[in-house]
Design brief:
Blueprint (H helix, E strand, L loop, with lengths): L25 H16 L4 E3 L9 E4 L6 E12 L2 E6 L6 E7 L2 E7 L5 E7 H14 L4 H4 L2 E4 L12
Antiparallel strand pairs: 1-2, 2-3, 3-6, 4-5, 5-8, 6-7
The protein binds cobalt (II) ion.
The site of cobalt (II) ion (CO) has 6 residues, from helix 2.
Length: about 160
């Protein structure tokens, strides 16, 4: 495993649409392992492949006991709306308030090629939505009602995705 460099806001690659993954091979599995390592080393709770310069539909999330690696993730159902704070490893030093669904159903393929269907609520739902936005070239700052500098916030309000 290896750490990968995180692309920062302003990098045109972050604005491109990522392509579906058609074959899960060792290259994809290495990418996912590196993304998990990079996310954890950066104290993040989520990371999308374009953030490490790869325009493929892969995301990782740290929302439970073991990190989730999701290939070609797609939200198939959503309800409710919650306004809460989020941040992004590609936009260091800032957080913003974004409205997201309260509950989602998301389908994806795991690193073994198995189809998964997961229900997520609250922060987990927020992270899925944020990371899937990255696959479409969207940053949270595009949707934020307000953006704050982290130095003006309490530490517990800051989540990096
Ligand atoms: Co992000």
């Amino acid at each position: 495993m290896a750490l990968r460099e995180i692309r920062l806001d302003g990098d045109p690659l972050l604005r491109k649409k990522s392509k579906d993954i058609v074959e899960i091979n060792d290259r994809i599995r290495t990418l996912l392992d590196d993304m998990v390592e990079t996310m954890i080393a950066s104290n993040g709770v989520g990371l999308a492949a374009p953030q490490v310069g790869v325009l493929r539909r892969a995301i990782v999330l740290d929302i439970g006991d073991t990190p989730i690696k999701a290939i070609n993730p797609e939200i198939i159902e959503e309800d409710g709306k919650v306004l809460d704070m989020e941040g992004c490893l590609s936009v260091p030093g800032y957080s913003g308030t974004v409205e997201r669904p309260e509950r989602i159903k998301v389908k994806f393929i795991d690193e073994n090629g198995d189809n998964k269907l997961l229900e997520a609520t609250g922060l987990s739902a927020r992270i899925f939505c944020h990371e899937i936005d990255h696959l479409n070239g969207v940053l949270y700052t595009d949707k934020a009602l307000e953006v704050f500098e982290n130095k003006d916030l309490e530490e517990e309000e800051v989540n990096e995705e």
